[in-house]
Automatic annotation (TrEMBL):
<dbReference type="GO" id="GO:0015031">
    <property type="term" value="P:protein transport"/>
</dbReference>
<protein>
    <recommendedName>
        <fullName>t-SNARE coiled-coil homology domain-containing protein</fullName>
    </recommendedName>
</protein>
<keyword id="KW-1133">Transmembrane helix</keyword>
<keyword id="KW-0472">Membrane</keyword>
<comment type="similarity">
    <text>Belongs to the VTI1 family.</text>
</comment>
<dbReference type="GO" id="GO:0005737">
    <property type="term" value="C:cytoplasm"/>
</dbReference>
<keyword id="KW-0653">Protein transport</keyword>
<keyword id="KW-0175">Coiled coil</keyword>
<keyword id="KW-0812">Transmembrane</keyword>
<keyword id="KW-0813">Transport</keyword>
<dbReference type="GO" id="GO:0016020">
    <property type="term" value="C:membrane"/>
</dbReference>
<feature type="coiled-coil region">
    <location>
        <begin position="75"/>
        <end position="112"/>
    </location>
</feature>
Length: 156
């Protein structure tokens, strides 16, 4: 039996096992090591094309096993995972509520700011009109003062 065949049998026996009862880190490490050996053996094989294709198929099987069949918590682990998921969902909902409240507050602040800006504009217009009136009255007072001086020269 070639080295490729021995590694292939060992990898298939790992894949046939129950991943839920094994340590996922150990499983990943062992399969990665075997896949590396298979890759080396496929390069050195006489029928390189067939062994490379077989290697790629085994790698896909390992990936599928890890993604679909592995890491599914059982019993207490499932309950813990479910509890963590519920806590995370609750935290996310709370954060979403806080964000919505903040957005509402910001919208209210923007509305108040707009109202203040409008009021300031109206106040500025009133002040400008009053300044214009003061200038007008001041110029009238200056003119009245000049007229009074001229009149006082007549009577003096």
């Amino acid at each position: 039996m070639s080295g490729f065949g021995a590694y292939e049998i060992e990898l298939q026996s790992l894949l046939a096992g129950d991943l839920a009862s094994t340590d996922p880190t150990k499983f990943a490490s062992e399969t990665q090591t075997l896949l590396e050996q298979l890759k080396l053996e496929s390069r050195n094989s006489e029928d390189r094309k067939a062994t490379t294709a077989k290697y790629k198929q085994l790698k896909a099987d390992v990936d599928r096993k890890v993604l679909l069949g592995g890491g599914v918590p059982q019993g207490a682990q499932a309950n813990q995972a479910r509890a963590r998921l519920m806590q995370t969902n609750d935290k996310l909902e709370n954060q979403n509520d806080k964000i919505k409240n903040i957005q509402n507050t910001v919208a209210e602040i923007e509305d108040v700011g707009g109202e203040i800006t409008t009021q300031l504009k109206a106040n500025r217009e009133v002040i400008q009109k009053q300044q214009d009136r003061v200038k007008e009255v001041s110029s009238m007072a200056d003119m009245a003062g000049k007229i009074t001086k001229r009149m006082s020269k007549w009577w003096a």
